[in-house]
Design goal:
- The chain is 32% helix and 25% strand.
- The longest helix is centred in the middle third of the chain and has 13 residues, at 192-204.
- It is α/β, with parallel strands linked by helices.
- It folds into two domains: 3-20 and 235-442, UDP-n-acetylglucosamine1-carboxyvinyl-transferase, Chain (Alpha-beta prism); 23-232, Alpha-beta prism (UDP-n-acetylglucosamine1-carboxyvinyl-transferase, Chain).
- Helix 1 runs parallel beside helix 7 (192-204) and helix 5 (127-135) packs parallel to helix 6.
- The radius of gyration is 22 Å and the shape is elongated.
- It contains 16 helices and 24 strands.
- The chain has helices at residues 23-32, 49-59, 88-91, 100-108, 127-135, 166-176, 192-204, 237-249, 265-274, 312-319, 340-345, 375-387, 398-401, 407-413, 429-437, 439-442; strands spanning 3-8, 14-18, 39-43, 64-68, 73-77, 85-86, 110-114, 139-143, 146-150, 158-160, 182-186, 207-209, 215-219, 230-232, 253-257, 277-282, 285-289, 299-300, 325-329, 349-353, 356-360, 369-371, 391-395, 417-422.
- A four-stranded mixed sheet has the order 22-23-1-24. A four-stranded mixed sheet has the order 2-15-17-16. A four-stranded mixed sheet has the order 4-5-3-14, covered by helices on one side.
């Protein structure tokens, strides 16, 4: 049985939406929680398939976990770690789980973690992770698809990353927490999720400074210095950007709650150039609106604080009906234009050459049956379907479920004509009505 979304477009979105905890932050906090003995509680945890996978990875280490979905909390009791292996069956489903390597090797002196393998949006190698761990003193062997790491003692050192890799920065931060002496990570990733991880570690008793800049310094502490904590995850800037894009693309007006605008500065500047109105209502509340055809803009994805690669596909969907020609350059991942063929099925005029896409705005998109190839491509298809005239069906929803909590319910709360269904069953207008009637009970 295949789940699909049915969306009837050409309906301006209006209303309010509250942003969930950041997927790309909470997964790393869960891995970091195993550094301290005792029970750590993480709040503002979204209900996502990626969160469930990370829980299974951690539980496989012998760590006790409790996921309270109603309270949006995860409790991780890492008093005892009885297994040092993170198996391929789980790591292969979610690359972010590879970050468990740094936490395991520094606490347990040994770790066996499966290589994460390929990724739909392009190659994301783990060379920087491995070289950094070796610089700290770990002995690394790669056998039968697993990374075997041993280190009786890790010693702080200077590590330079050839590119500001988010995953490598996070893995090396975790490994350096219990290393002897100071570690400097130069050309470090600067994403807000890195800052959140550093704040979490410092609350736990670590000594991390410089997070959010290109140089992070970790002064090693002892195991006894670390203690369990309660911590609240930051809001998801990519989810916020997604709902902002949908409201603007449909020429609607809405309130975005539980958002940190400073995390979206560059993105917001591009939205304003497109013709959107963005108003700060309160420190964590934005009002966004648009009442005109969008202006074309040129976009180049860059590491934070530049334009986020995770929002590139959404921007492309918006620009398919802009009043002119836009050029989008994807500088980070070679396969992150996988939404292009599906957008063309909906009437978009997009010419792609390698990592450049020329988007010529058309009068309108039309509904079509399309398929999500990855998480962000799937989100872009939802936005395109909301913009389009007529009915669209979107399949491969498991990609979207990885990163968006209750997304169809939140969109319906904004007035979208959207419903999830099983294609073996009939769907009627009453099904959509029933979803809308139960929105308040679902959120």
């Amino acid at each position: 049985m295949v789940e699909k979304l049915k969306i009837v477009g050409s309906n301006a979105l209006h209303g309010e939406v509250s942003i969930s905890g950041a997927k790309n932050a909470v997964l790393k906090l869960m891995a970091a929680a195993i550094l301290a003995k005792g029970e750590t509680v993480i709040h503002n945890v979204p209900e996502l398939t990626d969160v469930n996978i990370m829980l299974r990875v951690i539980e496989g280490l012998g760590v006790k976990t409790v996921h309270n979905k109603a309270a949006k909390t995860v409790s991780i009791d890492a008093t005892d770690i009885t297994n040092i292996t993170a198996k391929y069956e789980l790591v292969s489903k979610m690359r972010a789980s590879f970050i468990i390597l740094g936490a395991l090797v520094t606490r347990c002196k040994e770790a066996v973690v499966a290589l994460p393998g390929g990724c739909a949006i392009g190659e994301r190698r783990v060379d920087f992770h491995i070289k950094g761990l070796e610089s700290l003193g770990a002995e690394i062997k790669i056998e039968n698809g697993y990374v075997h790491a041993k280190a009786e003692k890790l010693v702080g050192t200077d590590i330079y990353l050839d590119i500001p890799s988010v995953g490598a920065t996070e893995n090396l931060m975790l490994a350096a927490i219990l290393a002897e002496g100071a570690t400097r990570i130069q050309n470090a990733a600067q994403e807000p999720e890195i800052v959140d991880l550093a704040n979490f570690l410092n609350a736990m008793g670590a000594d991390v400074s410089g997070a959010g800049t290109s140089e992070i310094v970790i002064n090693g502490v002892t195991q006894d210095d670390l203690h369990p904590i309660e911590y609240t995850t930051i809001p998801d800037r990519i989810e916020a950007g997604t709902y902002m894009a949908a409201i603007i693309a449909t020429r609607g007006k809405g309130i975005i709650k539980n958002v940190l605008p400073s995390h979206l500065t560059f993105y917001n500047s591009k939205l304003i150039k497109m013709g959107a109105n963005i108003k700060l209502i309160e420190p964590t509340i934005l009002e966004v609106s648009c009442n005109q055809r969008l202006n074309p803009v040129n976009i180049v994805t860059q590491p934070y604080p530049g334009f986020p690669t995770d929002l590139q596909a959404l921007a492309m969907a918006m620009l398919t009906t802009a009043d002119g020609v836009s050029i989008i350059t994807e500088s980070l991942y070679e396969n992150r234009f996988m939404q292009v063929p599906e957008l063309r099925r909906m009437g978009a005029d997009i010419h792609q050459e390698r990592n450049h896409a020329l988007v010529r705005g058309v009068d309108k998109l039309t509904g079509a049956n399309v398929k999500a190839s990855d998480l962000r491509a799937g989100a872009s298809l939802i936005i395109a379907a909301l913009m389009a005239e007529g009915e669209s069906e979107i399949e491969a929803l498991h990609h979207i479920d990885r990163g968006y909590e209750l997304f169809e319910t939140k969109f319906a709360n904004l007035g979208a004509n959207i419903v999830r269904y099983n294609d073996e069953k009939d769907i009627s207008d009453s099904s959509v009505t029933n979803v809308k009637e139960n929105i308040n009970a679902s959120i």
